[in-house]
Each structure stands twice: as structure tokens, then as C-alpha cells.
Amino acid sequence: MGIPIDGKSHAKALREETTARLATARSASNDPAPTLAVVLVDPDDASEVYLRQKMSAARAIGIEVRVDRLAATIEPATFSAHLRSLSQDPGIDGVLLEMPLPHNLSREEALLAIGPDKDVDGLHPTNLGALLRGSPTILPATAAAVIQLLEREKVPLRGAHAVVIGRSAVVGVPTALLLLQRDATVEVCHSKTGDLAASLADADLIVAAAGVPNLVRGSMVCEGAVVIDVGMNRVGESLVGDVAYAEVLAKASKVTPVPGGVGPMTVACLLATVVELSLRRRSTGGDDPWHQPRS
Ligand code: NAP
Fold first, then answer.
1. Which H or E run contains 199?
2. From CA 136, how far away is CA 107, in angstroms rounded?
3. CA distance 156 to 214
4. Could you identify the atom of ligand 1 that is nearest to the CA of residue 145?
5. Which residues of the chain form beta strands (DSSP E)?
6. 221 secondary structure, DSSP code
7. How many domains does one find in the chain?
């Protein structure tokens, strides 16, 4: 029988470290509080609940939050211009664009409109490129959360056989790259993988990020494996992961629950990134190399 990984308490520890880091920096410099701009397009009740949780965690750390709610009818050009103006605002340290977007708005365009130095999500091509080269500056929050949990749980990664289920640019691929950079042997599975069970059979570490409830069953996991469940799936009124939790906990050594595993750590990583971006800008005197006029 394995043990649950307590994402809430690890996230609290990271938030406390971030709070202390910011307080030390501000006591030495008198700088204003970092400011995060959150952009929501056509928010529903669930996104408002998540937003309130993020805002209260941000304020507890000492981060100001500005929220822009935009109508679903916004024109793509106006939307991009809005993101660009937030990104160029010297009073804003990071821009967080909540997903999903309405179909008429392109996620790729939006990512480009937010400059890499304000890219809290770490998904701008410049930041993803740095990750690919092994010198990441800003990490995608969910991939960072997976690594934080593994490191705080002291899970050995060097030489471990890790299987990541999911190859999205937001979660699966960044997680696989970070594991590779920690010397794991990484296999990435996706919807066209022929035999997922065979891939998982001798995995020391499984990261499930497919968005498919109960995809990973107890019978697929080897004794003593560590299982990180990134999935967040609404089933009726409940939030469930990609892992059949009770079955897998019976075989694995450690498993993250949903909720209470990767989710809280993702928010803590996001807020740590806002502080990192703000301290970095202040240490460079507010210089913003991405928004200098082009000659
Ligand atoms: P996504 O863009 O839809 O990607 C899902 C990936 O899973 C794709 O690569 C897909 O393969 C693969 N996949 C789908 N069905 C599969 C199957 N039956 N077997 C193996 N692979 C399969 O989703 P995402 O944005 O990466 O998010 C993945 C999950 O993580 C979702 O549940 C999301 O809600 C959750 N999430 C959680 C957090 C958090 O903080 N906990 C943050 C972000 C996302 P193909 O590429 O072949 O289509």
C-alpha cells in the first residue's frame, strides 16, 4: 500500500519560501509589490472560483492582482492589442491568460502578444526554446509543479524509467524535457500509443497528463512505482484525475490525489514565477529588451 503525496502541504511550503524571498527583496529595495494581470475571456462560474483561490494565494504572498474580464465577442485584433498593452505596461510584472479561449481567438497569437518577460505561463516560444536547450528561465507551471513534488518527495530521477502520458506543449512535453534534464530515461505516450499498459509495466515513475478519467489502472502499474496524476476531469459534480486512485495506491509507493496533488502546487509555482519575473525586472532597472522600439 502506497502513500498519498500531499500536494497542499508542499504547495504551502513553496508559497512560504516565495513570501520570504519577496519580503527580503522588498525590505532591501522599497520596490512596489509585484503585480499580476489575469485575463479571462467569457469566464464561467468554475473559472471564477479558481480565480478567487489564486487571488487569495497571491495576496497572501504579497502580489497585487489585477483582473481583466473580456467579452466572448472581442475581436481577435483587439484581444491581441489588449494583451500587448498589458505586456508593455511597466506596472505589470506578469500576464496570466486563463484558458480555454473562445474558438475565434487563437492561443498561439495570444502567447506571442504576451512578451517572454511577462509570460507567467512559460509558454512563449522564447521560453519554451530555452527549456528545450536545457537552460530554462521561466517554466510552464504544471511541469514545474510535477518536478517540485518529485524533488520535495526525494524521488530519485537519475536513471529512472519515467513514462509521461500526454504530449501537449503545455504539460506533457515540458514535463518530459525536465525529467530528461534530470537524467531520467523518458518515454512519452499519447493517444496513438499502441499498448499503453506495456509502456507502463516497468515504469519507475508515471506522469499522467491525458485528460482521460481512470486511464491508468492498478493492473498497469508496477509495485513501488511513483505516480503523478496531472489530470483534472469534471465527472458530474466531481473533479477526478487520470489515475484510478484507490487501485493504483494499492500497488504504487506514492501517488498524488486529485484534488490536492498537482493542482495546488501548480498555483504555487505560478506565483513563484510572478515573483521571479518582478525581481528580475527590478534587478535590470526595468529594462525590457523585448519591447524596445525596432530601428
Ligand atoms: P491536451 O492538450 O488535451 O493533451 C492531452 C494529451 O493526452 C495529448 O497528447 C493526447 O494525445 C494524450 N491522450 C489523450 N487520450 C489518451 C489516451 N487514451 N492514451 C494516451 N494518451 C492520451 O491536455 P493538456 O492541456 O496537456 O492537459 C492534460 C490534463 O491535465 C487535462 O486533464 C488537464 O485538465 C490537466 N491539467 C491539469 C493542470 C493542473 O494544474 N493539475 C494544469 C494543466 C492541465 P494526442 O497528442 O495524440 O492527442
1. helix 196-200
2. 22
3. 26
4. 40
5. 3-4, 35-41, 64-70, 94-97, 161-165, 185-189, 205-208, 226-229, 233-235, 238-240, 254-255
6. S
7. 2
Confidence of residue 289 (pLDDT cuts 50, 70, 90): very low
Domain that holds residue 109: 30-130
Distance CA 136, CA 270 (A): 15
List CB contacts of 34: < 8 A, sequence separation 6 or more.
Answer: 22, 62, 63, 64, 93, 94, 274, 275, 277, 278, 279
Cell 489588449, located at residue: 82
- As a whole number of angstroms, the longest Cα–Cα distance in the chain is 64
| 258 in the same domain as 147 | yes
pLDDT in tens, 57-68: 999 999 999 999
Q: Considering only CA atoms, which residue is closest to atom 18 of ligand 1? A: 191
CB 231 within 8 A of CB 225: no
Find the 189 Cα to ligand 1 centroid distance in Å: 11
**pLDDT tens per residue, range 167-188:** 999 999 999 999 999 999 999 9
Q: How far is CA 224 from the centre of its chain?
A: 26
Instruction: Give the whole-angstrom CA distance, residue 75 versus residue 116.
Output: 23
Domain edge (last residue) among 103, 130, 157: 130
Q: Model pTM?
A: 0.95
Residue 173: burial class (beta carbons within 10 Å; 0-12, 13-18, 19+): buried
Which residues sit with their C-beta closer than 6 Å to ligand 1?
142, 165-168, 170-172, 189-193, 196, 209-212, 215, 230-233, 262-263, 266
CA of 232 to the centre of ligand 1 (A): 9
- The pick from 171, 195, 235 for probing ligand 1's pocket by mutation, whose C-beta has the most ligand atoms within 8 angstroms, reads 171
Please report whether residue 192 resides in a domain: yes
> Cα–Cα–Cα angle for 94, 96, 97, nearest 5°?
145
